[in-house]
Model the fold of this input.
Amino acid sequence: MSDLLEKLMNCVELGKINKVSSFPPSLKGQDGADELCKMALEEGIKPQVILNEALIPGMSKIGEKFSQGRAFVPEMLISAKAMTAAMKHLKPFFTSGEIKRKGTFVIGTVFGDLHDIGKNIVAMTIEGSGWEVIDLGVDVKPEKFVETIEKYPDCVVGLSALLTTTMANMEVIVKEIKNKYPDKLILVGGAPLSQEFCNKIGASFYSPDPQGAVEFLKKVAA
Amino acid sequence: MSDLLEKLMNCVELGKINKVSSFPPSLKGQDGADELCKMALEEGIKPQVILNEALIPGMSKIGEKFSQGRAFVPEMLISAKAMTAAMKHLKPFFTSGEIKRKGTFVIGTVFGDLHDIGKNIVAMTIEGSGWEVIDLGVDVKPEKFVETIEKYPDCVVGLSALLTTTMANMEVIVKEIKNKYPDKLILVGGAPLSQEFCNKIGASFYSPDPQGAVEFLKKVAA
Amino acid sequence: MRFNTLSIKKSNDLIFGYSPKPVTTRRGLIIGGGIVYPELNFTLPTMSINDSTLTNITNQYKEIVNGALERALQLEAPGLIFEFETLLEMTQNPQIAIGLVKVMNDVCEEYYVKHGLKSEIRLTPNDLREFERPPKQRTSELLDLMIEVFEGGLNAGGDLLSIESTGGKEVSDDALMNCNIKQLIFALSVLGVRDMKMLWRKMVDICLKKGKIPAGDTACGFGNTAMVLAEKKYIPKVFAAVVRIVTVVRTLVCIEEGAVGPDKDCGYEGVYLKAITGIPISMEGKTSACAHLSPVGNIAGACADLWSNESVQNIKLLSGMAPTAYYEQLEYDTRLMNEAIKEGSASILNLQRLMVNSDIYHDPQALVLAPDVVIQVAGEIVKGKNYIDASIRGALKGLDIIEEAVNSDKLKLEDREVIWIDSLRSEIETIPTDESKFVEETIAEIGTTKFIPAEYGL
Amino acid sequence: MRFNTLSIKKSNDLIFGYSPKPVTTRRGLIIGGGIVYPELNFTLPTMSINDSTLTNITNQYKEIVNGALERALQLEAPGLIFEFETLLEMTQNPQIAIGLVKVMNDVCEEYYVKHGLKSEIRLTPNDLREFERPPKQRTSELLDLMIEVFEGGLNAGGDLLSIESTGGKEVSDDALMNCNIKQLIFALSVLGVRDMKMLWRKMVDICLKKGKIPAGDTACGFGNTAMVLAEKKYIPKVFAAVVRIVTVVRTLVCIEEGAVGPDKDCGYEGVYLKAITGIPISMEGKTSACAHLSPVGNIAGACADLWSNESVQNIKLLSGMAPTAYYEQLEYDTRLMNEAIKEGSASILNLQRLMVNSDIYHDPQALVLAPDVVIQVAGEIVKGKNYIDASIRGALKGLDIIEEAVNSDKLKLEDREVIWIDSLRSEIETIPTDESKFVEETIAEIGTTKFIPAEYGL
Ligand code: B12
Ligand code: B12
Done:
């Protein structure tokens, strides 16, 4: 790997956004993801290569550390910010179609439920793994999901619920989606769920953690 | 009510089997269920009347006390013995068809399960309420239930299970019975069960205690 | 700030079972008067709440109360509290919540009349306002529904009124995930405090009118969220410990407005409130492992007047329904404390010392619940010239104590935890104690899309 | 009877955490050596056991052990025991039981190697023989399956071997329902004792050959059945208390045959065994409310070396899986005891006194677990010239103590309970201490359709 890409990957992993950002102290004054990404493009490295070999690996490193309990959420958030700073430079190439994301993931907390911390972590992790993420927020009605799927027909859907009473709402949403899109892949998660419940409501996949969802999506994209 | 029938009822409730039995101390030396039932018949009281107005009410009194936590099982058992002593005299009338039980109740603990204390209490309580009880014991396979139903086509069936793993066997038994006898009434009970589980396996009725089963059977017989 | 001295000045007086200002309920439970009572919490198993399930739901709540009271009778218990925390649909449809209070209170009354067994219902409607984003804390129509439940529920037999109010949560959620202590303090000691004043004034009024007990609030959505995230290793424990201290200042406001306790479970700021104001409190510890794991299983009981399980679904365990089993566990926990109380203060302090030492140096979140730490930190809090200052003082004092414990090798923390002590301290030191300045700074940072200043009187 | 004096002579020496003969496990847990460890018990949720569910089952057991060990690590726990009590199908198909032991032990080993966290598996195959009625205790082929599980399970990583053996249960079941104390004593101190001798000789041999620990038995099917029936008010508590004492004599036999402890949970005779023989014991109390309610929530812990939850299904609670939550509760319970141990014997006795006083006068079943009562009653038991005599002496002494407590108004019992004291006493006094005479009398009473004398060497 080019030295530049390796540095860029490190910046994403460690959350070094740009030259002026003070975090992490060890990289103070050095170039950040922002500058390094720009340079990489200027050196003629293909945007797709930058994405696949620096940005995604950087996020997946921090994601792995996180899932092993060796990194905190704020560290992951700052990595995500560094990645965003780099992505800014890649934006034109997404628009032109020169590079592509792995797919689109639509996620939301089901209606009646306001818990979104877990959902946000899942969204962030999946985004970091190279997917476009459409976050519908909390208290999301079935219609909203269906509308969004209309816009992104190839998307994979994720539902989150934290209450034993709103788990039941997942079933409603799965039904309404499957009504229109019988083959739609629907991931479900949230503390009170179980594999059994996932089977019962006819969802496609259950994972107790974001890492499981990422693994599943890897297979889908492959 | 005649004085005699009232005395007989008391003997059943208090567990006074016969003249020589020493329990309860307060009735020492007096006539018991055995003697009083014989006398009642000799006085020309109809067997059906003896059954309905002395024996069953006696048992149901102790049963009620028991279900309110005011009588112990051994007291109920001794009442059952007193009732049996009286029933001995009524036997010929059952054979001749002059009197009838309310129905036949077939009960057993499902295969894989040896817990029978609860089942025995249920059997005893239902017997005391005027039903003929066929107790198939523990670890009972589906075939055994089906065979028994063949013999007693009008029976109501009761299943007991105490293990979370043998609860599942109830479903098998219910299925096999309903296969041949789609309308068969099947009661289920046992500590780990719930109304929800009863619904799920398609049983007819769930009760957490013997009293509930007796109430249900009352309606069935009416 | 109304309180500027401590009601309990020595840590030896900060004990379980006794509070300087006991509260007597309608059926005669004296909370904080020398007996620790169980407070049983419960919720529905997986199911929907709608017309077709309402009978089932009603039966479940009835059975839960029945099951616990029957067991209480068998265990010869002195009494207990049921906390009824409404679920969303119950507050949205006040008649449901009110109907359930009535059903449960009827059972309580029956056991009281028949057997002299004393029990009460703590009514805790959920705070609906957070359903709108940004929330309209003052102008939302959802507030009317909540008030309907307060009033109707108390009429129907609730005796204690509580809530886990959520003013400021729209800011704190992100602050927690980013471990942004400045925004967290803003959420709690500016937005939270202002919302508490408005809401609790109303709640206290309603209670006074009806002769009911305005019990107290808890910053569950802040403090316990932080704790659960720390248990999952998502955020540093050091941060969660500081958050816990900052919740104190916010929740104190309900007492300033007239709440008299027992303060609610689902948070651990109660022990600070007890030290500062003298009201009795409900705490939860090991026996709330049904609801969440925690690093404060024993130490949380050190100063409890009620002892709670936070929440358990109405599902079957091998022994019977889970709420009955958990009631039994709470009863035995409190029996142990009550035996110590019978023996007198030396015995109370003996048992308390074991509870404290059990957890104190396993986690900074436990450390800040130790009675002598509480007295020190609370002493700093009451010196605050306003709520922000109080939060800053408490947080800094807490950090000092944590640092000292680390330096003296009593508290072992990973390096990636330790570095947060300094960085939190330096962040906190930049907070202006002047409210309008703090507001201005924060709005400059996060804008006003997340929260509506006017809804907090800003 | 091998034991005719007490190993622990003073009630002050009968305490939690210490036993005269500690047991050291392979990974270095010293049970009875100054730390009380949790013993986590667990079972499957509602499901069938067959080929199609085997992967699922394996995963569940793996996750249970993983979940508890992960939490133990977070709580900085000194160690724990997992009791794996096989379900019917697992013993009928030894490969299933053995496979599950291996899977679980692998996880234990991983945490031991990676983190130094010590845990062990207590293997408790269920007694299959009761599946035949009348059971063929000695000649049944089911015994071979059990032995296969003993041997294979120990090879696969089990370190402690236990069982809840059921010799005599075919007689005791009816005896319990009829409250027939003579038949109950026959079931336990004739049939039970004889079966224990035969079975435990085999089990001890297997353990010695493999360098494993023959831990102990428990009369759950007798004592806890009586307790559960008494909790439901089906039989008198006084009767259940006496049954508990009689179970001591039966279970003692496993130690005579070479079992060294920790004796099993699921019964409470352990505390007597500890007093008589000095082995460490596992006890269960309030934190086994998931498995059954009980009148001995705190007092059961007074002399525990392991502290168990008896059993909980692997179902979801709000916090996570129930076994993890229960592990956490056990951990905090034992932390409290271990803090007292760190402070020394005065502190142990202080905490023990609270545990004892909490329950002692609420129920005769609690009374007979109080350390000083245990010393008195155990002292009578060891005077017995044979097992029957020992049972009679113990039972009568227990009745005297119960009566005294009633007369002195400390123990309040309903009249319908009190009358059983006299009637049990007079029944017991008619029992011949000569075994053959007792056998003859009992066979005359109940015949030999229920049990086969030859299967007990009679
Ligand atoms: C934080 C919290 C809140 C906060 C929510 C803040 C927020 N913005 O989310 C506040 C205070 C607002 C709140 C409110 C309420 N809460 Co709340 N809350 C919690 C708490 C303490 C932590 C939840 C959490 O964030 N966990 C951390 C995250 C990271 O974990 P997670 O959500 O499980 O997500 C992970 C996985 O599940 C998975 N995942 C999640 N979603 C998805 C989706 C997919 C597709 C995949 C693959 C994976 C996945 O990945 C995530 C990362 O690892 C829990 C307690 C607990 N033990 O969990 C109670 C809890 C969930 N709440 C509870 C209750 C009752 C409520 C209220 C009803 C209280 C009330 N009466 O007002 C309200 C409900 C409001 C509503 N209608 O939603 C109960 C639920 C009980 C029940 N019956 O189900 C709990 C269990 C507390 C308790 N012990 O009683 N709560
Ligand atoms: C006594 C007992 C035994 C005795 C049984 C003696 C006997 N002859 O029945 C013995 C020792 C043999 C035993 C063995 C086992 N047991 Co067991 N046992 C118990 C215990 C302590 C009490 C059960 C009891 O009798 N209760 C009293 C009766 C009166 O109540 P009941 O059965 O619930 O019945 C009432 C109602 O349910 C209802 N009812 C019952 N049946 C029916 C039917 C109908 C139609 C109706 C309407 C109503 C109804 O009315 C009854 C009267 O009110 C329970 C603990 C507990 N908490 O319940 C464990 C328990 C049930 N056993 C358990 C286990 C694990 C076992 C074993 C597998 C242990 C082992 N590893 O060897 C074996 C299984 C053997 C087998 N395959 O069956 C577990 C079950 C766990 C699980 N996964 O489900 C329990 C819960 C213990 C525990 N806490 O772990 N056990």
About this structure: The CA atoms of residues 4 and 194 of chain B lie 44 Å apart. Chain B has two domains: 3-96, 104-221.
